[in-house]
Every structure is written in structure tokens, then in C-alpha cells.
Specification:
The protein is an alpha+beta fold. The chain contains 4 helices and 4 strands. The protein has a domain of 145 residues. A hairpin with a 5-residue loop joins strand 3 and strand 4. Helix 2 packs antiparallel against helix 3 and helix 3 packs antiparallel against helix 4.
Length: 262
């Protein structure tokens, strides 16, 4: 089964513009800091990272200011925006992951931006989804497409990419449903043909069983009729020969008189 990954992602955020460089300031509390310019701490970098390396972590730590109170109002606004965006993106991708279940191809990947505090904040993300169909099994394909559509629309505010994935999944659902209906129709037709054949076979057996009985009855009737005809003919013959036979018997008695002794 081919692996067909698609990505469902959070809407992209346009990175906030860095604040203008601040003017050179002098700290009167210490002579060592006089005439030293304040270095702006906003670094606009966007990179897609799934697992930051230890070198990147050390870089973040070295760039982190000792006191967030050192941020000016513009930097603080940028930081607040990045923190809010980070929470939104992570919640968005977690909703995708929870609904995708075993169809998710790994975890979420994020696009980061480094804030004025030296930390990196997620400003975009995506989750890979296995959208391959199941060969010769429209039932499972339908279930998978429904799960993909739910995963794509799981966040509170689906992105344009999310809606595109959901639309493709809905089209796959319709195709799978059509295949299921076609299979059921074929199965019903096949069963109807089997039932019809069974009825024909049963009817043929019943006809063959009844035919010998009818033949036997006809033969018995013919035999009875023949016997009756024989009996009738015998009776007629007896009736026709009785007077002649009586005359013969009388003649014999007259020609042979019986002697009577005194």
C-alpha cells in the first residue's frame, strides 16, 4: 500500500517587525558603562525545527537576557505576540494529532522565530497524515477518509490547507460509499440468482416425485378395467351356453333309463 502523506497545518503568521534600534544610553550608576551603546536584542529568524540540537539550545541560552525587565515596550509587545502565537500553534497541531491517531506520520513539526528574550517560539506547524486508500476494501477506505476529515477540521480555526485536506477526504468518502453500494448490489443479485436456481431445482424434484405415482395409478386403473372386462365376457359366455347344455343333459338322461327293481 503506497504511503500518501498530506500535511495539515496552522495558518502562517507574518513575523512581527523588529523594533527600531534604540539610541545610545549612558548609565550614570557606573563609570564602566559610560559611552557604551545598548545592543538591540530582537533577532528575526524563522526556521523549521523539530528537535533543536544542543548547540541551538546553548545559543538560545547565551542570547537570553539576564532580566526581562530590560526589554523596552516595543520588544515586550513582540514577545507577548510570539508567546500567544506559540500557544495557538501548539494547540492547533495537538488537535490534529489527537484526531489523526495512528494515521499521523510522526509528531508535529514547527516553524520557529526567536524572540527578543532569546527564546524560540512556534509561529507555524504541520502534521503529516497518511491518506493512502486500502486496496479492494472500500469499507476501511471509508473509515480512514472519515478519520482524516475529522483530523483536518479538528482545530477551532482550520487553515486553508486543513480545509483542502478535508475536501479531498470527503471526495474519497463518496467514492468509497459508491463502491460499497455497488458491491452490495452485486451480492444481492448473486443471492437472488442462487435462490432462483434453488427454487427451480426443488420444483423439478417435486415433479419427478409426482410423475411415478400418477403412472402407477394409471396402470392400476388399466388392470382393474381389463379384469372387469374379462369377468363380463365370462358371464356373457355362461349365459349363452346354459340352455344348450341343459338340453344335452336331458337327452343323456332319456337315453340311459334307470332300472327300477321291485
Amino acid at each position: 500500500m503506497a504511503f500518501a502523506p498530506v500535511s495539515i497545518s496552522a495558518p502562517r503568521l507574518t513575523p512581527p517587525a523588529p523594533p527600531a534600534p534604540t539610541a545610545t544610553t549612558i548609565n550614570p550608576a557606573s563609570e564602566d558603562t559610560q559611552d557604551k551603546p545598548t545592543v538591540p536584542r530582537v533577532v528575526n529568524t524563522s526556521e523549521k525545527v523539530e528537535n533543536p540540537s544542543s548547540d541551538q539550545a546553548r545559543e538560545q541560552s547565551s542570547q537570553k537576557p539576564n532580566n526581562l525587565a530590560d526589554l523596552d515596550p516595543a520588544e515586550q509587545r513582540v514577545l507577548d505576540q510570539l508567546k500567544a502565537r506559540d500557544r495557538e500553534v501548539r494547540a492547533h497541531e495537538q488537535a490534529h494529532l489527537s484526531a489523526a491517531g495512528n494515521l499521523a506520520s510522526g509528531g508535529a513539526s514547527f516553524t520557529y522565530q526567536q524572540g527578543p528574550d532569546g527564546q524560540r517560539y512556534a509561529i507555524g506547524g504541520e502534521v503529516g497524515i497518511n491518506s493512502a486508500t486500502v486496496a479492494n476494501d472500500p469499507e476501511k477506505t471509508l473509515q480512514r477518509a472519515q478519520q482524516i476529515r475529522r483530523a483536518a477540521l479538528a482545530p477551532a480555526s482550520p487553515s486553508a490547507q486543513d480545509r483542502s485536506v478535508a475536501a479531498n477526504a470527503a471526495a474519497t468518502e463518496q467514492k468509497a460509499q459508491a463502491e460499497i453500494i455497488e458491491q452490495r448490489v452485486k451480492a444481492e443479485r448473486g443471492q437472488a440468482a442462487v435462490n432462483e436456481f434453488s427454487d427451480i431445482a426443488t420444483s423439478t424434484n417435486e415433479t419427478q416425485t409426482e410423475k411415478p405415482n400418477s403412472t402407477n395409478q394409471s396402470q392400476n386403473q388399466n388392470q382393474n378395467q381389463s379384469q372387469n372386462e374379462i369377468n363380463n365376457n365370462a358371464a356373457v359366455n355362461n349365459a349363452n351356453t346354459s340352455p344348450a347344455q341343459n338340453e344335452t343333459d336331458n337327452s343323456e338322461r332319456e337315453s340311459n333309463p334307470v332300472d327300477i327293481l321291485a
